[in-house]
C-alpha cells in the first residue's frame, strides 16, 4: 500500500490521486481534501494542526451509508496523522476545535 507524504507530490504519468488543503482565513475554516482515483487504497499523511484542533471526517465515499457523510457537529475525530483512503473514493476532513472535558 502506497503512502503519500505532505509536500511531495507525485507528478508522474501514472499518478491517480490528489490531496490538498483549503483555508478560509476570514472564517478560520480549514479543509483537507483527498481524491483517490486509484483502484487500491492509499495512505495520506495529514497536515499538522495546532494543539487545540483535530481533523474530523466529514465525507468518506468508501464508507457505507449513512457513515459516508457526517454532520459537522458530530463528525468523528481522526486520531492518526495518516488517513487510509480506499480506492476510487473522496475524503473531506475538517479541522475543528477539540472539546475539552468538563470537570
Please characterize this protein's 3D structure:
The chain has 103 residues and is an all-beta fold. β2 (17-24) and β3 form a beta hairpin. Helix content is 0%, strand content 42%. The protein has a single domain, classed as Immunoglobulin-like, CATH 2.60.40.1180. The model has no long low-confidence stretch (mean pLDDT 90). The strands form 2 sheets. The chain has a 4-stranded antiparallel sheet, with no helix packed on it. The chain has a 3-stranded mixed sheet with strand order 1-4-6, with no helix packed on it. It contains no helices and 7 strands. The radius of gyration is 14 Å and the shape is globular.
- Tally of domains: 1
Relative helix content: under 10%
Strand count, sense and closure of the main sheet?
4 strands, antiparallel
CATH topology: Immunoglobulin-like
Secondary structure tally, helices = 0
Based on Cα principal axes, name the global outline: globular
The count of β-strands is 7
User: Quick one: CATH superfamily?
Assistant: Golgi alpha-mannosidase II
Task: Detail the topology: elements first, then pairings.
Blueprint: E1 3-4, E2 17-24, E3 29-36, E4 42-45, E5 53-60, E6 82-85, E7 89-97
Parallel strand pairs: 1-4
Antiparallel strand pairs: 2-3, 3-7, 4-6, 5-7
